[in-house]
Design brief:
Rossmann fold; 15 strands; 17% strand
């Protein structure tokens, strides 16, 4: 474990950033970005000292005395204006890098995603040699790829080491994205499996991710990226069925073919953008594609260079949620 540090966290009122604060607050001095009074209260309840700033205006003064940054904030929705993804994911990350470098931060850990490599294709048992997709047609993928390039490109500038951790499908207690979204679709009668839910996926329990983040404070090579995942691989259907069951939700059997879902999303999304509809379409192209192809990642590099070993097995994590 890294010796005690002052650590600046972004995204501390969210799922991943909040879990980071709770895990590290006992051993480190945590400072967290807070855009509002409510987010300030949230991060302070979790164990960090709130600093009022945002990715639009953060500067070195907000990071004074910090040894490390854990940058977990991002626009991760499947829908929104390209300009918003660009402003938050790319320009916000660059501003964080500039502020951290100017403040004398020595370690910058960026929470990336396997989606930064995604253009719509299957990704099976991929490792870190797989190319990024800054030209992806999906705004989340493209901007997270460009953010990662900025982070890795900043390594060794002003003496700061930069690393990227790429979790796939983060789940567990406190989940504010996957479980609530799927539950809403099921309860509103709008959920259907794509191709029966047979695509295979890696996943990452939140405790496994925060364990990897803690390791990355002291281990890993600057300028490198690391996939972080659970040991097990499952079909989307098996994973979501077991996960939603912990919340008392039984998944329906209804299924639609991938070609139909992709076709509908490809036809509807341009109309939504043309007419500037703020509400997301029934399904986006990104969702239609990423839920209908295999996405499995290798964690050998994280094992070798970070000393990472998943702490929570799938059944163990599910059992804890059921309790």
């Amino acid at each position: 474990m890294a010796s005690a540090m002052r650590i600046f966290v972004t995204g501390g009122s969210g799922f991943v950033g909040g879990a980071v604060i709770r895990r590290l607050a006992e051993d480190h001095d945590l400072v967290a970005m807070a855009r509002s009074d409510s987010s300030a209260r949230t991060v302070e309840q979790r164990g960090a000292r709130a600093v009022r700033c945002s990715l639009d205006d953060v500067d070195a003064s907000h990071l004074a005395g910090c040894d490390a940054v854990i940058h977990a904030a991002a626009k991760a929705e499947a829908w929104g204006a390209w300009s918003d993804f660009e402003r938050i994911n790319v320009e916000g990350t660059r501003r964080m890098l500039e502020a951290a470098g100017s403040a004398g931060v020595r370690r910058f850990i960026h929470i990336g995603t396997e989606a930064a490599l995604f253009k719509g294709q299957p990704m099976r048992d991929i490792d870190e040699s797989y190319p990024l997709a800054p030209d992806s047609p999906f705004p989340y993928s493209a901007t997270k790829a460009r953010a990662e390039l900025a982070v890795r490109g900043a390594n060794d500038l002003l003496g700061m080491q930069t690393l990227v951790l790429r979790p796939r499908l983060v789940w567990g207690p406190g989940d504010e994205t996957v479980l609530p979204a799927v539950r809403h679709l099921v309860e509103s009668g709008r959920f259907a499996w794509i191709d029966g839910g047979r695509s295979r996926t890696s996943s990452c329990h939140i405790d496994n991710l925060t364990h990897a983040i803690e390791l990355a404070l002291a281990h890993g090579r600057g300028g490198e990226a690391y996939f972080i995942a659970d040991d097990e691989v499952h079909t989307i259907r098996a994973f979501l069925t077991a996960y939603l069951r912990t919340a008392g939700v039984e998944m329906p059997d209804k299924s639609v073919p991938a070609w139909l879902v992709r076709g509908v999303a490809g036809a509807v999304e341009p109309l939504w953008r043309l007419f500037r509809v703020q509400k997301p379409p029934p399904i986006t192209r990104f969702e239609a594609c990423i839920l209908s192809v295999d996405c499995t990642v290798k964690i050998d590099k994280a094992r070798d260079e970070l000393g990472y070993q998943p702490l929570v097995a799938m059944e163990q994590g599910l059992a804890a949620l059921r309790q």
